[in-house]
Write a structure and sequence with these properties.
Blueprint lengths: L4 H11 L1 H10 L4 H17 L2 E6 L5 H7 L3 H11 L4 E6 L10 H7 L4 E5 H4 L18 H9 L8 H8 L1 E6 L4 E6 L18 E4 L3 H9 L3 E4 L2 H10 L4 E5 H6 L6 E6 L7 E6 H5 L3 H30 L10 H4 L5 E4 L2 H11 L5 H15 L3 H12 L11
Parallel strand pairs: 1-2, 1-3, 6-7, 6-8, 9-11
Antiparallel strand pairs: 3-10, 4-10, 5-8, 5-9
Helix pairs in contact: 1-2, 2-3, 5-14, 8-18
């Protein structure tokens, strides 16, 4: 059964948020089961030597079906792997931080752990966007393979530790598309870069995505996620960029006329931890957290492949009950031919737009002490199309 919002709030008030999350995941309102869980959880908390406060931003049990962050399982794996020495408080539904606040609060030590898209985090931790080169990645697992490869730590993970005092743990990855608003209902499908010229595109607060919009002749409009739905409804923006699971889970597909499947940039839901909080624990418990993160990365990838078909509907074989299929009378899913895709790649590539990207390349290179784009492009070419290798990076 699906837990109603009223039941979730009632259980949360009576037994606590963690018990309400248990009820939502288990699909139960049984007072006996919930009270047993709450009692067991309270007993475990008593013996915990370390408590991690994890602000998972806007994630909640309902949108988790689309996003597959594995945040709730991640907490469970840490607690089980540490035999109760670590307790994790999962603060969801924006209780602890909004998307653009989580990394700032983790860096300051207000929260021990947080979640955010890399693109939103980039406003505070500039290097967060270092993997987001437009049209570089052809599949989601190649980026994940980079994050799992110890040899590639200097490109990304080491910068978080050394420059921001943050340990990057893992991320989901669903490639980003462009969602055009309702004014496109009666217009031809966008199948060429010229169809986007001059259009106002809502973007995350990311230099990389701003550059992408400019490379295609669009006008980037930074707009908070909470304001985007109204912006799409009212026509303040012509379209927005995000990934399918995010758009569907937050109701954005209801105000979308065309989904232009460009897969132009990673859409990563990242999890990270304050380095001081991590290093307060002994090494064996630090490795418990990292192993739980490694597992979350692997399971998120495989679960997303399923959810893209059965929940979001953006996958190659969408099911009738998926979001995209349910909205097919009002929203066209525009899948491009290889020749059409190549026209977008050629127009928006980093190499073609060297002047636009020169500034961000210089800044990222200075942070990492190496040619970031060059190293990532070389790695991507080497692993393109290979399966996920969820190896240890530590």
């Amino acid at each position: 059964m699906t837990l109603s919002r009223r039941d979730f709030l009632r259980i949360s008030a009576d037994y606590g948020t963690k018990a309400a999350i248990f009820a939502a995941v288990a699909g139960t309102t049984s007072a006996t089961l919930i009270s047993q869980f709450a009692a067991k959880d309270a007993q475990a908390a008593k013996k915990a030597k370390y408590t991690i406060r994890h602000g998972v931003s806007v994630v909640n049990p309902k949108n988790e079906e689309f996003l597959q962050t594995r945040a709730y399982d991640f907490a469970k794996w840490i607690e089980e792997g540490s035999d109760g020495e670590i307790a994790v408080q999962t603060l969801d539904s924006g209780q602890a931080c909004a998307e653009n606040q989580c990394v700032e609060r983790v860096g300051a030590g207000v929260l021990d752990m947080g979640n955010s898209s890399a693109q939103n985090a980039a406003a505070v931790t500039y290097h967060a966007q270092a993997l987001d080169w437009p049209f570089l990645w052809r599949d989601p697992q190649s980026l994940l393979n980079l994050l799992h490869d110890p040899a590639m730590n200097p490109v990304y993970r080491d910068v978080f530790r050394n420059k921001y005092g943050i340990e990057f743990l893992y991320c989901t990855n669903e490639l980003r598309d462009i969602f055009m608003g309702l004014k496109y209902s009666d217009l031809p499908e966008v199948r060429h870069p010229d169809g986007l010229k001059g259009r106002k595109l809502r973007i995350t607060n990311s230099t990389m995505i701003q550059n992408f919009a400019e490379s295609l002749g669009m006008s980037p409009v930074p707009l908070a996620w909470t304001e985007t739905l109204e912006g799409m409804k009212s026509g303040v923006v012509d379209g927005m960029e995000t990934w399918g699971g995010a758009a569907a889970s937050f109701g954005m597909t209801k105000v979308t006329a065309q989904v232009l499947e460009l897969d132009f940039c990673p859409g990563t839901g990242s999890c990270f931890m304050n380095l001081r909080a991590m290093e307060r624990m002994p090494g064996r418990l630090q490795d418990v957290v990292r192993e739980a993160a490694r597992r979350a990365s692997e399971e998120s990838y495989h679960n997303l492949l399923v959810a893209l078909n059965t929940v979001t509907g953006a996958g190659p074989n969408p099911t009738p009950e998926s979001n995209y299929v349910q909205l097919q009378d009002t929203m066209r899913h525009v899948r491009l031919s290889e020749d059409e895709m190549e026209a977008f790649r050629e127009r928006g590539s980093v190499e073609r737009n060297g002047k636009i990207y020169s500034g961000i390349r210089k800044e990222l290179d200075e942070l990492a002490g190496l040619d970031v784009f060059g190293a990532i492009a070389e790695f991507e070419e080497k692993v393109r199309g290979q399966p996920l290798n969820a190896q240890k990076w530590w």
